[in-house]
User: Fold these one by one.
Assistant:
Number 1:
Amino acid sequence: MPVMEHDTPREMNRSDVDRVLLIETESFPQPWKRTFFEEALDSSITRAFVFEREGVVAAYIVLYAVADEAHVMNVAVDRRWRRQGLARVLMAFVIDRCNAAGVKDYFLEVRESNVPAISLYRSFGFKAVGRRKRYYSESNEDALVMQLAVGSAGAGPAVGKVEEKRAVSHG
């Protein structure tokens, strides 16, 4: 099912945690525990959003935002709805919302072998600015540190492109 214009992420709440944990477990070799999500929802610096499909949570994103900086901690999509633009919608939503709140720099780590995620982040204007050696302990794989610097001008360079792509290809 393609992403439609009226589809909008919403804030994650405690009733979403069970479903988010299922997506987390199928998406990552070392999934976060329930307590991490619950504590994140209680934190004043955490922003967490979900995207629903057919009445269930199909994707989520968690980030920290402090002053003018945000750190994307996790983005995951249920395998049934991958490659349909849900991660793109979540990223665009978060960037728009955080830009409006004054965020100017975004950071994230991504597994260097995760080519689809790297491609997604680059489409938003993220650039590799470093490497964390053996960041992923289960595989000793390096993480690329990526940054999107939007400066004081507001929207990041790719947010407008996201809207155009969504209208044309839905993801």
Number 2:
Amino acid sequence: MEKLSKKGVSEVISSVLLIAIVITSVVLVSAFVLPFLRESLQKGKSCLDIREQIFIDTESGYTCYVKAPAIPGAIANTSVMIKRGENEISGFLISFVKDGSSKTYTIKNNTPLSGVKMFNQQSTLILPQKSGAETYVFDNFAFERVELAAITADGEICQSFSAQISECFYP
């Protein structure tokens, strides 16, 4: 009778192969996942930095709405003061929200925008200087709240601030 020859992989070789497969898998996964995570974390960090640096100033008295005298309940205009810190921004979005719908304005430096002017009546809009503030006046419409989102220097939009705005009080 012939002897059956049993050939197999030794335990040492199989262990080495398993370790090599695991190391190769880790290298391949890290080659794709780590750059994605780094990019996502970097974007999140820039938005987190800006979140603390740009906001709607509701304390100054310049952020408020004026009612239209001839039409009960109608709003003549709304002014919003935006304060900015030291971070670089290329602009920001201001959204007026009511009943789930919104009207959004994109504010960029040295650009005119229909329905928006500076507090000093200038039609060309400017961004606040670093550590400064600017007030923007928007034409009439009703809203429930105002939202602000900064646009980073690389074009990313970062949700920043939401505020309720009260009626202007002039003594």
Number 3:
Amino acid sequence: MSNNSTARDKNLVMKISLREFYEAEAVQKRFWGSHREIILAENILAELTRNKSEKILEVGIGDGFLLFQMRQLGYEVIGIDIAMKRCRNARKNVPDTELIVADARFLPFTGETFDAIICSETLEHIPRHQKAISEAHRVLKIAGEYIVTVPFRQTPVKVLCPYCLRSFYLD
């Protein structure tokens, strides 16, 4: 492969939008409730400390596994994903749940709407993720819970506090 064709291929990759990437990735087969997903869901659900009538937003819904688990426990949930195909796929698993195609950096909700926001294994995929954190802070009720999980031990994890906007690394 020549240097020109490599550069051209690189430019093509750079022109694919974030939405297009996740639309294409959404068609890949996944296992419903893999061992890792189950453990992650158990840990997230353990963090939800309020009553079952609370309103929860999940950012980056994947196939809807966590939404399904929260619905089973009686939570009122709304899910967003940047990829329409992910919302369509999740609709099969959580048919009575509101699913919205939206960018986490531009949430289509009024301020202080949610008691809890869950962003699991998603934040690390969002360019300018500080904007997504600020938006979550905007739509989160005062004293609400913002639960974020990111892959650990793969790369250093930098955390940005949505309240004071200070960042730090997890050891």
